[in-house]
Amino acid sequence: MIVTPFSSAEHGIAREAALLRDGRPALLLWQAEEPALVLPAALARRQDVRPARARAARAGWPTARRGSGGGIVPQGPSTLNLAMISPVAQGFTLEDGYNMICGALIEALSRFDITASTGSKPDAFCDGAWNILAEGRKLAGTAQRWRATPQGPILLAHAAVLIHRPESTLWPTLRDLSDAAFSDQPPIDADAHVALADLLPGRMNPDAFSGAVLRAAEERLVALGAREKDAA
Amino acid sequence: MATDITIPSDLWDGDEECVVTAWLASDGGKVTEGALIAEIMTAKVQYEITAPATGTLHIVKAQDEVAAKGDVIGTIT
């Protein structure tokens, strides 16, 4: 099976962390079976966010924590996660990391005649400059984590792709939690997002995307490994 | 002699600032060269900072403070 199933998002995040600690080049495509809203640990500790977290849990969206910062990300059967792990050499920048993972996603989408680009979408969840946008809407979000080692940094580039339209309960729940956590940001708009299943031609199964994205990501990891070898 | 702990200047291309999201060693505490001592965040990237020397840590930029590329966030004496 190409996509590794985890019962919860916390298990998937823990597996990514284990691969980052290991430090060898690796690819992981994973999905969580149970829905959850994943928050940065600092946000999950805030007292003023607790009532909204409790409401989210009652609505079927319990919260889970991750070590990194950023915004709130829905996980569950509607989200496909891609993690690319590799040592990187001096001179490799954050932009290189984003170009690598976004390039893999954009190439895989092009196999299905979907034109995508990178950019910000302020009324989408966990917005950043390196979203994957299709039809002007957010299809995927990306982030990175860099671990320091005596031999040089190890990169974990991560993407969360909306493959199916999430349950309708997500949007009011996400908006409520986001408003409690980030009062200075625009409210989350469901129409700022698009799912892969809505972009695929005909009745094509979104699962076909997994193979394409894995191949595109693997090519880039191999190229990065060759670049590391040349730099050494 | 003090050794500066600086935000790398070649880690990203733009002029975006970062936030010191965590100090993993105490102000005034002993640190060992190569040990993980801090984490910074910029553009949804969490980046680890290691101690450039062995000695006593003096924090210049506290947790949640903003820093620019090349800024000194602490020193080791």
How does this model look, in words?
The complex is a heterodimer of chains A (232) and B (77). With 232 residues, chain A is an alpha+beta fold. Chain A has one domain: Bira Bifunctional Protein, Domain 2 (BirA Bifunctional Protein, domain 2), CATH 3.30.930. Helices cover 36% and strands 25% of the residues of chain A. Chain A contains 7 helices and 10 strands. Chain A starts with a strand and ends with a helix. In chain A, 44% of the residues are buried. The model of chain A has no long low-confidence stretch (mean pLDDT 92). Chain B has 77 residues and is mostly beta strands. Chain B has a single domain (3-76), classed as OB fold (Dihydrolipoamide Acetyltransferase, E2P). Chain B has strands spanning 3-6, 18-23, 30-31, 36-42, 45-50, 55-59, 66-67, 72-76. In chain B, the strands form 2 sheets. Chain B has a 4-stranded antiparallel beta sheet, with no helix packed on it. Chain B is globular. The model of chain B has no long low-confidence stretch (mean pLDDT 93). Chain A binds chain B through residues 42, 67-70, 91, 93-95, 97-98, 126, 128-130, 141-148, 150, 153, and chain B through 10-14, 19, 21, 34, 36, 41-50. Strand 9 of chain A pairs parallel with strand 5 (45-50) of chain B, so a sheet runs across the interface.
